[in-house]
Each structure stands twice: as C-alpha cells, then as structure tokens.
Amino acid sequence: MLSTTAFLSTVFSSPRFDAQPLGYLRTGARVVRAAEPTTGTDVHRCAGGWYRVEPFGYLCNGSYGVTSQLDDPRVQVSGRYPPKAAPLPYGYGMALGAVAYARIPTSEEQRAAEGDIAAWRKQQAEQRAKVPVDKQWPELAMPVEAIPPFLENHEAVAAILGATPKGVRAGYVGHSVRLSFLTAFESEGRPFYLTTEHLIVPADRVKAARLTKFHGVELAGTGPRLPVVWMRYASDRLVAFVYALDGDGVTKTELTLPYQTWASVADADVVVKGVRYHELLAAPAGGRAGVRYLVKGPEATRLDAAKALPDPKLGPTEVWIEVSLSKQTLVVYEGLTPRYTTLISSGAGGKARSTPVGQFRVHQKHVTTRMHGQERPAAAPGEEAEHYYRFDDVPYTQYIVGGIALHAAFWHDGYGLPRSHGCINMSPHDAKYVFERTLPEVPKGWHGIYPGRGGVPMGTLVVIRG
Questions:
Q1: Rounded distance, CA 173 to CA 392, Å?
Q2: Can you give the pTM of this predicted structure?
Q3: Taking a C-beta distance cutoff of 8 angstroms, is the pair 450, 459 a contact?
Q4: Closest CA to 447 of 66, 34, 9, 15
Q5: pLDDT of 148-179, one tens digit each?
Q6: Among the four residues 80, 204, 253, 335, which has the most C-beta atoms within 10 Å?
Q7: Spatial contact of 428 and 211, defined as CB atoms under 8 Å apart
C-alpha cells in the first residue's frame, strides 16, 4: 500500500515527473501498489522507487509526500476520516472569524488569543435563538466524538501544509470563509473542529451548515417518468396554484403545490381561453379523485424527454447530462431514457457570472476541491462587484469548461433560481447522485481524476441549453 503525507499527491501516467497527471490522492488515502518498483531506462530517478498503483498510473515513493509508512502520524490522522457516504463528505460551516490552533489550546491560551469566550458564546446563542426554528443553523456541523488520540495531552496535530507551527496559534480564518471538518470533539466543555487541513478551530466561532432537504427524483422502472413539472419560484408567491377543469373553463381551487416540488403531468397540455395549463396525473394532497387538476404554464416548468441524442457518437445506454438555463433544471439520461431530474442554480448573469451554452465533456472530477475568488470591480455598469470568497472542499465537483463546474452547494437552498458565479449548483444529494453516475469513476483511494488524459477515458457529455 502507498499513502501520502501531503495535502495532494499526483498520480502520473508513466514513471516520470514530466508525465501527464491522471489524478491525485489526498492526505491519508491508501492505494494498492505493485509488489516491486518499476525499472527501465525511461524511468525518472526516485529515491523510494516508482510503483504502479491500482487501477492505473504511477507514484514515486518518497517524493511529494508519497510514503509506504502507513504509521506516519499525518497518514493516521486523515486516514481515520475518509469522505463519508452521506450527502456531505465532511462537516461544513462558515467561519465567523476564528483563531486556528495547531493543538488543543488550554483555557488560558484561549483567553489570551480570543478574549472573553463566555461572553462570545452567550452572544452567539442569543443570536441563534432569535432565528425561527425552521431556519436555525445546527448547533454543530457534526456529532461530537472523543478527542482523537493524536490530540490528547495538547499534542500538536501533524501538519500537511507547510511546517508545524512552533506555538499554539496557527493562524486566523476570516469571516465568511467556508471550512470543512474531519471530526468534532470537546475539550474542557468547549467544542472544537479538526479541519481537513489539520487545523483546530473553536466550534462556536463557526456557523454550522444547514443541510437542505431538497433533492431531485429518480425516473426509473414503474416510478415517475417524463413529462414532469417543477413548481417555479416567483417574487410574489412560493407556490403554484391548482385549478380544476370545469367544462369549458377552469376554477381556481384552494390547493397549492409549493416551490421546488414536482408532479407528473399528461403528455398533452390543456389550453383554456388562450392560457396553457399542465394536467396533473394524480390529485394533489387534499384533492378529490375523478377531478382533472391543472397548474398554469407560467407557474411550473415542464420537462419532456429528449427525442434524439445530442451527439450521434453516444452509445444507446451511455450516460449524458442535459441542463436547461431557462428552466433551471438538470436531467440525467442513459441514451434516450431519462433517469433523474432536479432543479439547479446556474450563473446569476452578467459578464462575470454567466453559464456558457454548448456541449462539454467532464475534464476533472474531484470528490471535493477548494473554490475561491478575489475582490474585483464590477465587470460592467450596473453589475455588482466581486467580493472575496473561499469554500474549502466543495463536494462532488466536475469541471466541464474553464472554471465552470457541476457541484454541490451546501451554502444555499435556492435551487431553481440563477445565483452562482457561473457553475451549476446542485443540492448535495443531487450532486452526489450525478457524480456517481458520470464517467470515469474516481478510483478507490483517489480523491480526483482527470478524464481524457494519459489513457483515462473521456468524461461524460454535458449539454447546456439556453
């Protein structure tokens, strides 16, 4: 087995440092290697030898963090906390301005670095209590566990980005930075997080991410099929009104369908007095059997199955993705069979926040990756300036062109509305579903892969329509 003590270690296509990168490992990952190192005249010098790893590619043992010493503290720390199978691979939260520690600080060290901690914690609890219960953020980003053995007795956590700080304080995390966490624990009655970068931050200096309940719908077997409609958001309402067909007219009922819900509809729409309606195949909650219920076209987004493949080279069961910017929807296809549909959030618009239209291939897949941007003036008159942002470990990221990617957005739940910097935002559940069905798969133990490089198969086709 090989692992790495570095934050990232590249897997190369051949045993050379100038070979194409195929993907990478994250700290503590474990991959199966060949029994013996690779030899030959075309092999670059490597102190510990080049090893072929599963399922393909090469790592240089002893270089850029790669190691066969699985008992190394840095390997053991991160190796205990691989990405989870839950919708979010780590714990997440927004820093409220937090001191980062290199080890668990004593009470005296905390007061010296942060001041009156009791007053701060009381203030945060009061602010949270003022928020309606259904809008409150969780008290913690993840369940509290025992203090990790490697942090007991105020031992310094093994650094993976640069040298381990000599003092207790390792730095400062600015307000609004989104952090990712391996575990949560308590020390002297105060909860802390261990970040994926091996820093310790007080949990009360972080606003835990609130996981949305929204997700799309599978279209398979005897379940739902296209066409379906998604209820659209409007500034003056959060529901679509339901109507009953009454002879040659329609009657508005007291029934509604909330924003972000879906319904199966008939193949043919109904037009009454020039207004187009979608006919529901099943009565909504509170409805009566035998009544033909409708929703207005402008209040719902209708999705019909594709009639032809976007590329004749696609196989009859090959997976491809269709995104509609006007409808803010995504559909996963196998050939011409729709398998999944959901709402997305694309670019908010303007020069700096637009989502491109066209056909693209996934060219990078990351279980998680950092996204950040710098302060910039407005790109055009009437547009907003760009503020600094940093999101650690954005889940299930798939780059398709430039800096545009499909990925989970745990920091909002406004799916169905354009609001991103240009990427295709999905709920964590939806992003995970899509990530696991696009090709190529991220190999076991790897954290990312680069489709189309060095013999790695091409990535899945993504079609973005206006």
A1: 12
A2: 0.94
A3: no
A4: 9
A5: 999 999 998 888 887 778 889 999 999 999 99
A6: 204
A7: yes
